[in-house]
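haha ok so turns out i had the wrong file open the whole time. this is the CORRECT one, sorry everyone. sequence first:
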Amino acid sequence: MYKRISFIVSLLLLGSFVVPISPAAQAQVLLTQARSSEVKQLLEEGRRLVDAGDYNGAISVYQQAASLEPKNAKIHSGIGYLHAQQGNFQAALAAYRRALAINPNNGDFYYAVGYIKGNMGDTPGAKEAYRRAIQLNRNNLNAYLGLAVTQARLGDYEAASWAYEQAINIDSNNAQTYELMGSMYKQRRQTKQATNLLNKARDLYQRRNDFDGVARVEALLRDL
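then structure:
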């Protein structure tokens, strides 16, 4: 049971996007990037397909838009995002690499690459992508969390703790930070630190009525 819970917690960052944006919101963002009426029409069609849950259809439409505006990094990133949502990580990585070739200073693109590489089992590559995302945006809380998780997976707990502390400095009320940090201490059998952090996470989840978060943390606490 402990191993299963720890695995689930570690996948909070490496198994799902932490970026708080839905596919529908991502599609709406893309609409603002259109530089021609034809591309705008294609992106509007893509948004409708995303709303309908037809991600493959949306990708096809976005690819048409990308052929018309090949230097539009956001369109390539939108394609990568939808591939990642479906677990097509190799295709997602290729799309984000195209986006980065156009705009190499976009921290969100590097964050996505970190997520994708983590899912592909390339933990060192994920770590470097998260580091680059942080270099480009020192306030990217999710990149610090991604870095912390990858550092812990690589056995560098001192570096992981530093990254968690940076995340707390950015937002001291982020429940996920304390949950992940507490899980790390739990894995290391440092019960006192784990208990304090997990209790903090549970309290914060309770404040925002996140019952899934509360249940997940309580399961970790019972297993201490």
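The radius of gyration is 19 Å.
again sry for the mixup
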